[in-house]
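Project standup — Tuesday

K.O.: blocked on the structure for the chain from last sprint. Re-posting the sequence here as requested.
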Amino acid sequence: MAVKQDTVSLEEIIGRLLENRGWRLSTAESCTGGLIAHRITNISGSSEYFDGGVVTYSNEAKIDLLKVPAETIKTHGAVSSQTAMAMAEGIRRLRGTEIGIGVTGIAGPTGGTASKPVGLAYIALASPVSVECKEFRFRGERESIKFQASEAALQMIRRHLEEPIAV
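H.V.: unblocked you, prediction finished:
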């Protein structure tokens, strides 16, 4: 008889890491449409460490809710590292959390260009010690790109929380 092995999900690992630090998380999502928040809140008890999230799909929402400078979007575009970092910092400031995530990208199948193709995404993480952003090039259909972006964001959170706290 096979022994059932329990696996711990990435969302559960993040929850434990946040609880261990006494930190809270907030999300600002564009191309993922709230999928990161959805995945985090699939875990019972996540209200202990997940404050909330916003889906800022339009440029106006990014500017009005997250205080992304209009000049940043005008100069670099809504899909840029600068915008993702401003989103992460904006949600962190708005909600007063230790970690803010900002995600912007092009999930497709339309909207891509030669310089910003479908699948391009920027994911930023703002914390008390730093703001980091990574560029990704995902492949596949729209739902797959959204899932891959949410997975990359969750992995980014996990890695950040596994680092020792800078004193």
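K.O.: great, moving the ticket to review. The radius of gyration is 16 Å. Helices lie at 10-21, 35-41, 59-66, 70-76, 81-95, 142-162.
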